[in-house]
Amino acid sequence: MANIQGVDRRKPSHRVPSIECFIRSGSKLVPLDAASERLALPGNPPPVTAPVTYGQYMSSVARLLSENSFMALRKLLKKQLKPIPKLEAASNIELIAEKHGALYSVSRLRIRFADDERSFAVNCAFSPDQQAFLEVEVRHLANLHARFGLPYLPLPFISAKGPGLMLSIAEWFENHHEFHLSADASGAPAITVWTQSEEPRFLDASKTRELYAQASKILTLYLDSRSFSQIYPWHHGAGDFVVDESRIPLSLRLITIRGYRPLLARKSDCRDKMLGSLHFFVNMGIRMRIDRLDGTGELAWAGAQCLPGVIRGFVEAWETRGENTHLPKAREILSLFLDFSPHDRLEFAKIVAADGRVEADEGSFLLACLPGHVIELSDVMENFKF
Questions:
Q1: How far, rounded to the nearest angstrom, does the alpha carbon of residue 177 sit from its chain's CA centroid?
Q2: 15-25/92-100 β-pairing
Q3: Is the same domain home to 63 and 138?
Q4: What pTM did the predictor assign?
Q5: pLDDT given for residue 48 in this prediction
């Protein structure tokens, strides 16, 4: 088993536990060994020279965490735990490779004590482009936490750089899992939750509505109501939201911030509060429905049963924001859309979809879905109870 040992030089009689490295494989943790060390990381575009291997990745991260008598881990414990435990009191420290993508790789850092256990998300970037993205994300997370003070985004704790890599350690949302649209027994798209201990399972109708309501609420709460800057882009296909369905009501979190910007075509549009508000709402309704089948397959479209949740989350968040006094009421925003002719609703939705497109191949897919979407959205809006 690969590990990195270290001794606290200030207290040589107390040894810090080795950092033990594992690879997540379904519900199992596979120890990093001589064979798995040579495997290339999935999902990461190879650098000019050669792909990054699990051995290079995990040993580099473990080495950076253990430098200077595990200074990074000591800072981490000071930021999250009170009273602050001594690192030497930990029973073991684990670094678990969990997920890999084009932007960065995610590991779970788990520190166990006799009567406590804490986990952290370790996001690691290798190429200059990846590192630049990670730096921007950390800045966005810090700014949004400072401005809104809400619990729905991971709190960034510390960042560090080493030869050829940058890592950021942030809050880990315990028991929250990725979810995606999958084909149910009838072939219709439905939400499945990817837990680590068992096969993916479908959410029932009530939990599905609550999931979409919370996702809509989160995005609405983080909207800048003056510039209409918003968390964007985001994509269900990338697993940006995670859910803990064991809670009542279920708990949803957004684990990444790729950008924070307005989608309106012109700055002058930001002064039109009704236009900006409707643009935000219509775009969110479109984006909530698009996913990739099972996360990596073909583009998929959620059924209309998600729309009551999307609308409810938007209305609840919109009406509870104190600074929204200068904005139109949620009822007025929905009424404006319904006041449009059916043709104008569709034309407006096409403009919004083009402004909010995330992936290059979404254009024709969305154009095919929009006519039905506008009809279904209108029907739900007409029957929505404020």
A1: 10
A2: parallel
A3: yes
A4: 0.91
A5: 47
